[in-house]
Amino acid sequence: MVRARSGKTVLRRRKRLRKLTKGFRLGRHNLVKQAKITLLRAGVYAFRDRRVRKRLFRRLWITRVNAGARALGVRYSELIAGLNQANIELDRKSLSEVAIHDPETFKKIVELATAKK
Question: Model-level pTM?
Answer without folding.
Answer: 0.76
